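SAMPLE LOG
Freezer: B-3
Tube label: C17
Construct: single chain, 447 aa
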Amino acid sequence: MDGILQLFQNKLICSICRNGFVDPITIDCGHSFCRPCFHLSLPNKSVLYHCSECQKEIQQKNFHTNVRLKQMVLSVRQASLWHFLRSTENRCRIHMEAKQIFCEDQRSLFCLHCSTSQEHGAHRHGSAEEAAEQHREKLLKTMCSLWEKCRENDRMLNVETVTICSWEIYVTSTREAISARYDYLPLFLPLEEHRLLEKLQREGKEIFDQLKASEACMANKRELLRGMYTELKEMCNKPDEEMLLDFGDILQRSEALCEYMPQPVKAELTAVTVPGMITRFRNFKENTTQCLRRIQSHVFLQGDLISLSIGCPSQGEPVAFPQSECFLYWYGQTFSTGKHYWEVNVGQIRNWALGVTCDDWIANNINLHKAYYLLGWAKTTMHHNVFTTNPLVLQYVPKPTGQIGVFLDYEDRSVTFVNVAQSSLICRISSCSFSLCLRPVFCCSHF
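STRUCTURE (predicted):
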């Protein structure tokens, strides 16, 4: 009997940890693994990953528990526990009976007579088989919750790492954009420019130091969370009788670890007011007229700024659409030379993008990624993103609201975006590869 049980048990082994399956899942190719082993073996990035057995690419993201396999593992565990409980080594030395009662208070096994004695009668008792099943389910539930915390922390850590990699370049480009705007202003303002640039540099350094400290905190949290997750899994791997006796305070320690989760630094530069900038831009103001068209597909952000698209305009005359729809506005004017300025009121719109696009895109729907220079704002599950396109870059500024000014300098090959109410610079896209004709465009959704 022992040999048959051992043979059956050997068939229910995870190839990663070489132990009996814990919450088994079956992936695309048909191979099965412990869920925690599979989680811990995945790379910490959104990249393709492969089965460790056959190396086939794994397409599926969310896996359900293989219920039948889990029941088979449970049956083997129960048979093993039953065999232990009735073995000679598990007999009470006083009453010479099998110790099949588990005491929660003392975490010990007792025979029926001992468990009802005056010494232990007030304690919490129960069947060892039932206690093992309940404790293992508690472990699995805690592991599920803990893994969500691991994923949350990994997402936050990725956000922080991306911000750190781009922060110093961003601060430098912002300084250059401010200097470019001062070049067109009166000569008596160089001291004001110098003061603003110094302030920007100090603020940039302070935020960078905060980002590095936050990244270190999240990296440490990652190790602690994964360490606890591994400890919970190792507890699940123990035979039922050992798990019951060694359980201790592992659930309380896991819960305490999840009480505080570090959050990303709010990396935003203070809005920089450039005196006289809006007044000068308005010397080139255009009287714009809009055309409206519905968009068939509309995705501003996927993941952490992995991709961006505006979508394709549908055919037909402009009509009124429900608030959940997406809208594309373009303007009647086209520009192929000179300086031009216009303003767009974004109000409290959830997602929007505005700027200039190649005129051919409106008519022919050409390659979108080379067709526009835009400033956009989009709300994600974790935070909001202000970004520019060509190149696709996050802009670490407060959410722009109200009137947004767009200044197109065709000869300078640049597009500048400004917050009209604050007379502050949002950002500047330079070294643009303009086509012959550019048209102002505004896209929005989720009013």
